[in-house]
Write a structure and sequence with these properties.
The protein is α/β, with parallel strands linked by helices. It has a single domain, classed as Rossmann fold. The protein has 4 helices and 4 strands, in the order αβαββαβα. A 4-stranded parallel β-sheet has the order 1-4-2-3, sandwiched between helices. α3 runs parallel beside α4. The radius of gyration is 19 Å and the shape is elongated.
């Protein structure tokens, strides 16, 4: 703390609450796609569950978007897919997350089925965003 004070000098805080810039993570609202988002978490049967959901919604006449990792993209032939990135590259997945959701908004999909990824590093953040979007 002393080193920070030495480098910055005296710091004054604005006491006017209306001027406070809040962190995006603490705002009551966050971006969520217009479509219903279903997150299928990692585990045994994940891909089969995603296929089951997709087929069920397709039978209902819904326009479906599937957000999937590159390792699983060939398992959803006949569906509208967007590849978030490799299971082993959470940086790319994080970079692509919101552009994919917005792309599905532009395509006016009714339901997005998202493949959950691992809970390591940025994967935690990605999954947090997807969980929040799926609960909206």
């Amino acid at each position: 703390m002393k080193e920070i004070r030495r480098l910055l000098g005296k710091v004054e805080l604005n006491s006017d609450e209306s001027d406070i810039i809040r962190s995006p993570g603490v705002l009551p609202h966050h971006y969520s796609p217009k479509a219903k988002l279903l997150l299928v978490e990692k585990g045994n049967g994940q891909i089969n569950e995603m296929k089951r959901l997709a087929l069920n919604f397709k039978k209902q006449g819904k326009n479906i978007g599937i957000m999937v990792t590159s390792e699983n993209q060939n398992k959803f032939n006949g569906f509208k897919i967007q590849v978030i990135g490799s299971i082993n590259d959470s940086r790319t997945c994080a970079f692509n997350l919101f552009s994919i959701l917005r792309s599905f908004d532009k395509e006016k999909v009714d339901v997005i089925i998202a493949e959950g990824i691992g809970l390591r590093g940025l994967g935690l953040t990605i999954m947090d965003r997807l969980r929040k979007a799926s609960n909206s």
